[in-house]
């Protein structure tokens, strides 16, 4: 079971996997996985995936990707590795791996409350120095509008934010 096709996709070369979700992120994960796996099934509870039009078209044209609509996974089976999943209708479906791409909502409520600008995904808008629209306020990680949502990139963004905050405080010429 994985939350990152970029990180773990290579472990599934020539295997059958499923991606849980119907967002643009799920479509992109499936497209990425299709480069190395035998088959990718997108399992989505809705009636139509909500991917960007270009990604939706790519998914639909990709012969290695099949979408199973109006379906939920209720169980993932296997001892040390995934062997199968159970659908909400009771059907057991054999797969070698499961990639979960159901999305998340950044916890940016307090930032919005104090006037920090966010985008349409509620991510805090930052510049290359991790600065927000409010002086002295910095953001990093999954709450920020950076393109990649991975632990390693979050750590790197945190380093940028820390150095930027240090430089900001240094510019204030506060004696301490």
Automatic annotation (TrEMBL):
- Molecular function GO labels: oxidoreductase activity
The FAD/NAD(P)-binding domain covers 2-158
Matches recorded under SUPFAM superfamilies: FAD/NAD(P)-binding domain
Q: Which UniProt keywords apply?
A: Flavoprotein, Oxidoreductase
Among Pfam families, the record links this protein to: Pyr_redox_2 (PF07992)
InterPro entries named in the record: FAD/NAD-bd_sf, FAD/NAD-binding_dom, Ferredoxin-NADP_redctase_2
This chain belongs to which protein, by name? FAD/NAD(P)-binding domain-containing protein
